[in-house]
Every structure is written in C-alpha cells, then in structure tokens.
Amino acid sequence: MKIYKSKILANVRLKKNIFLMQVSIEINNCTFIPGQFFNIKVADGNYPFLRRPFSICDYTNGILTFMFDVNGEGTHILSAKKSGQELNLLGPLGNGFNIEGNYENAVFIGGGIGVAPFPYLTRKMGKNKNIISFIGGRSSGDLISYNLDNVIQATDDGSIGFKGNVVECFIDYAKNNLLKNYRIFACGPTPMLKAVRELAEVNNIECQISTESSMACGFGLCQGCAIEKADNNGYLLICKDGPVFNSDEVLL
Fold first, then answer.
1. Claim: this prediction has a pTM higher than 0.85
2. Does domain 105-210 have CATH number 3.40.50.80?
3. What are the residue ranges spanned by the domains of the chain?
4. What gap in Å lies between CA 26 and CA 231, rounded to an integer?
5. Which pLDDT tens digits describe the chain residue by residue (252 residues)?
6. How far apart are CA 9 and CA 144, in angstroms?
7. CA–CA separation, 184 and 206 (whole Å)
8. Does domain 2-93 have CATH number 1.20.58.1970?
C-alpha cells in the first residue's frame, strides 16, 4: 500500500451515469489482485474530506482503469475530472479474488456497477478457465458488459435477454446446460449477494463474493466497515479482511 500521484489519461461516459477513468501509474512488479481497490482523493481541497473506494476495473501496461457510478458528491466531482489532471490514489487495498484451483468454469455474476472488478479478473484468468459472465439490471440501460467474455444478460423488465434477475438467469442456464466443475465470483447489491450465497450453500458450490461498505480509511484503522462472521464469532473488516470473502465466511 502506498500513495500514488497519477495523471488522468481519459475520463469518459460509458453509459447513463457510468464512467470509465484511466490513469497512468508508475509501479514496478505489479502485484494487483482482481477485487482489490484504491481509495481516491476526489478533490484537491479538504471537501469531501474522506477518500472514495473504487475497485480495480482493469490494469495493463501502466494504465489503471476505474469504473464508477455517479450517485453522490464525490463521484460527481470525479466525473468532471479532465485528462491531464493529477489524481491522488491510495492502494492497492484489501484482499481480492482467489483464482487458483482445479475448477474448469469460472462463473461471474454481476449486478449493475457490480461488474466493475470483472474486466481485470477476466484478464488475469486469461485462457486458463472457461469464463461465463452473467450480468443483470432493471432494464437494458443498466447492463454493463465492458471487457467481459461470454456475456449472458438478464433484465427485470425483460427488455433484453433473460426476463428476471441475474441469479435466476444463472440457475436457468446451469440447469439447461448441465454446468459442472465451476466456481462462482459475484459482485453486486447486497440482495443479489444474499441470493448467490444461499444458492452456493444449498448446492455446495465454491463461491466468492465482493462486498461493499462505506470505508473511511480503507485499511482497518477506523473499524467502520465491520461485517459479521458466519459462525457468529465476531466480525471481519470489509476493507482489510475483504472486500472479497468466501461466501460461507460472512453474514449479509
């Protein structure tokens, strides 16, 4: 973990309120893990005071990509940033996805902006696994397929793809295609993660979930992002012990 003074290379609207920001970062022997995040200082002054956490969306050749949804003061400020401006980054932080193992199929399940860590996860897996990316949203305008492989879409209103939520879409696909020897990687809103967690528990499926929380510090000092252990024996910190957990580790 360290502070980087990076330069913005591009900041473009991907769709609706979704932006992609690319920054240059000077780092030797990159050890970023998919699912880790950076805490970004969104303004030059003291307001907003707290940094904002953003997943590593992608990284290649010294270029780091973030994907974010404009839904508050911090992300509104970030969306107005221009190429050439400097950005203060703290990271990489947290623990990411474990991609090692003997499974054949990697199943990505993402809801809305929850797909943000999946492009880098796709890149790091390379051709070692067969990736199937399930993405969901309320309607077609909420679907984000940026740099994902083998995309299967689900919409609540049926405007495109499977009509229903993304977890129902995956269940339907797995049943009709006799999917075997797979591991689930999920990121999205808490109700979606709860459904994925239950699915994994009932069917004894390996599953990792990327959780979200307000993070004041990003490295465990403030204790503000606690999540209860599944064994009811205390708490873990999303920023320090996560944000990625095995689905059977935590309660949602």
1. yes
2. yes
3. 2-93, 105-210
4. 42
5. 789 999 999 999 999 899 999 999 988 777 899 999 999 999 888 888 889 999 999 999 999 999 999 999 999 999 999 999 999 999 999 999 999 999 999 999 999 999 999 999 999 998 889 999 999 999 999 999 999 999 999 999 999 999 999 999 999 999 998 899 999 999 999 999 999 999 999 999 999 999 988 787 888 888 889 999 999 899 999 999 999 999 999 999
6. 22
7. 6
8. no
